[in-house]
Amino acid sequence: MRSVKVSDVMWNHIEPVRCGTPLTSVVKTLLHNHVSGLPVVDDHRRVLGFVSEQDCIHSLLVSSYHCEGDPIVDDVMFREPVTISPEMSVVDLAQNLGAGKPKVYPVVDHGKLIGIVTRSAILSELARVGCGVELPRYADAED
Question: Is residue 142 a part of any domain in this protein?
């Protein structure tokens, strides 16, 4: 189990949010991809921040109440996100999860975003592998 790395469970098919993106577009992306947050990157895929559902909820409530128009992601993103390496062990990451910790982690290699890993992905892998005993994948269990 310790040999399973973040790179084995990360998602690399989700497009990150770019600086300057209207918050309504960010919300559509979050909902479409069923994730609770996404990294915000520059044109070179360097992670500049992170935007969560909670950030969007608060900002959209305030902007609609004050009729301020559509805010952009730069106005609400968290500017010091926790990033992780693709080589990090899933077990090590799981041991660091807890209340107040991120639910989505940007995976960065050589300073550039290469994917994200979610708590759901970690949970799925831990449940699949168990305590060193390989469990059948859900699809295999139906055969």
Answer: no
